[in-house]
Amino acid sequence: MSAPQIAIKQGDRVSLWCRVTRRHKTGTINFLVINGYWNGSIKADGTIAIEGGRYGETQGEICWQGHAPFAESRYNEAIAWIEEQLAHG
Q1: CA–CA distances in Å: residue 72 to residues 8, 24, 78
Q2: Which of 83, 46, 50 is nearest to 68 (CA)?
Q3: Which of 44, 60, 70, 89 is disulfide-compatible with 8, CB 3.0–4.6 A?
Q4: Percentage above 90 pLDDT, the chain
Q5: pLDDT under 70 in the chain at which residues?
């Protein structure tokens, strides 16, 4: 089975579709951004950090967890599908 996926919302839109690479007991989740191909983490308080810390931190919210029925190369379609799932929740 493939790695779990999450979507992260910043503001009112899904901005990041991610493959989970590690979950910590503290609630922090490490991930690879599928639609940007960079590594980062999100803490339980919503703080998002880019691996290496060169770009600072930002805020976000995990809004979806699961497996989108799309190849990773079809990330625009996957994000639209995730947004539709959230809208019809």
Answers
A1: 16, 24, 8
A2: 83
A3: 60
A4: 80
A5: 1, 52-55
Measured in degrees and rounded to the nearest 5, phi and psi for residue 15 equal -115, -25
Q: Is 24 helix (H, G, I), strand (E, B) or coil?
A: coil
Residues 50, 42: Cα–Cα separation, whole Å: 9
Q: Which residues pair with 9 in a beta bridge?
A: 14, 61
**pTM of the model as a whole:** 0.90
In sequence order, the β-bridge partners of residue 57 are 49
3-state SS, one letter per residue, for 30-69? EEEECCCCCEEEECCCCEEEECCCCCCEEECEEEEEECCC
Contacts of 8 (CB under 8 A, 6+ apart): 14, 15, 16, 18, 42, 48, 60, 61, 62, 63
